[in-house]
Amino acid sequence: MIKCRYVVEDIKDIQGDQVENAIENSNFFISFKGNRRNIFDFTSDIEFGEKFIFVNDMDEAILRDKLNNLISKSTDDDISVCIDISLISRKVLSDIMSILSILCVNKNLVIKIIYSLAKYAPPSKGRFYNNLVKPVSNFFRGWALKPGMPVMTIVGIGYERDKAIGAIEYLESSKTMVYIPDSVESAYRADVLDENSNIISSVGADSLINYTVERPSEIIYSLDTLIGSHKNSFKTVLLPFGPKIFFAASLISAIAHPETSVWYVSGEEKDFNSSQDRDIVSCIGFSCSIKTFFPK
Predict the structure, then answer these.
(1) Each residue of 157-202: pLDDT tens digit?
(2) Of 21, 50, 232, 233, which residue is 20 to 30 A from 116 by alpha carbon distance?
């Protein structure tokens, strides 16, 4: 069986004043509805309807059936999906992206990712250890172009103290690149650097890459360049800790580079500072189109 490949195009940032338009001009909208970190409190009145899918208490099977039902009803070649990732867990988000990529294999899929930046909160003092380290799904498992290739890990860092180092050691990584976030919440970056001093000091300065949370399209282009320049020498594994917008950008990058895998580390559901339902500072996002082709 010949596997399809995906081309990711038209990558653009979504600014705060474009969020409402992104939601309204989509076939359906997926969100985890919070009490305080609620995208609808940040926009004007939007009428609820069938196209709104709230994944609160929804398992993967129900979600797949719901999406399949909505997509099968559409006679258009284009399917536009807007996803508010702010409170959706990383595992559920990877499930959503996997399901959409498979169900829309014969359509032009437009993905619009919306992310609300929460008000700054210091990192929790608890430690949440890696009970489970594995690919986020079969779709994002990836494969090596050649057997026996060394592993390169691309790590996004956040408040997850020592989680990245544990995962890197588990994967026996030969090369590590570290993405460091910066945002309007300047105190957050200082905390991230402090929480991740071990991994930062373990790699060279040329292995540290700064990125701006408010410009997610640049994250995708950077990951694309990094993966593309090393794919013939390394088996690439993405460990996207840190802001969830980096996780979403990593999933998009892995769709474009299916030999790359995205790994999940358990414990996020216990670390309330990683996806806490806090007041919103601003909203950002990005959009892209995903097209399918079958190699000859």
Answers:
(1) 988 877 788 888 889 999 999 999 998 888 889 999 988 998 999 9
(2) 50
